[in-house]
Amino acid sequence: MRREIILAEDPFLEVSLLPLSIPGGQTSSRCAVILDPSDKKIEVSVVSREYQLIPNLEVRNIALDILTRIGIPFQECRMLFDGRRYSQRWTIEGFELEPRPGDFIRLGLEVHNSYDGTSLFSLSFIAERLICGNGMVVDFLLGRFRFRHYGQNGDFHKELDRALDTVQRLGEQGASLLPAMKRMVDTPINRGLTQGVFRKLNTPRLYVADIFLALEEDSEWGLYNACTRVFSEQRSFRGEVLNRQTSHYFFIERQR
After folding, report:
1. Alpha-carbon span 155 to 188, nearest angstrom
2. How does DSSP assign 75-111, residue by residue?
3. What integer pLDDT is reported at residue 151 of this predicted model?
4. C-alpha to C-alpha distance for 70 and 195, rounded to whole angstroms
5. Structural domain tally of the chain?
6. What is the pTM of this model?
7. What residues contact 255, with CB distance under 8 A and at least 6 apart?
8. Which terminus of the chain has a smaller tally of CB atoms within 10 A, N or C?
């Protein structure tokens, strides 16, 4: 079996658990997670025998089922997969905010899964700026829904219904973002203050120059969107972590 991770691998390849053996021919308490078991046989992680493996394709289909049941048009956006972790997001038409005239933020849904236990099957809620397409990782404000009973029909269907209800109320929840957004729009910021924000957030130096270049205006709103734009363009899970940290700082810490 090939043990390396191929970053561009198809996230929807067949996946299976392979029980491992230990010296003496006995079966181990651990299993290998194998991508494409009938062909390339790529080992992506080792988990316990009790690990509940959920294929990414099934996760995607469940998210699409929830979005379809809402009855409102939606649009597929960014997808990430590194061989182990998977996420995909959609924005939902009609769930929009306008912190200032002509600058629209659309709310949406992101689904998460992993083949190594680092991310459980869950839904979180995101926002995306339509002008430039940069995502805002604000699940700490809009919420996250974790599925705990996948495969247990009765409980899982109840969880699906609760998830659907949560998504339907996303527009109301999203309104809580507007006061902070409008304050950012109205708050000027200069180069010194910008550098102070970088120090506070411990922003990696390799991104600082790109953020300055992405600045469209000397306001907190301009700085925040420059950061989220640069982090979104990384198309990586590390970029999403930086995005969440930055969003938490601007929406929570700077509001105090």
Report:
1. 50
2. EEEEEEE-SSEEEEEEEEEEEEEEEETTEEEEEEEEE
3. 65
4. 43
5. 3
6. 0.89
7. 180, 183
8. C
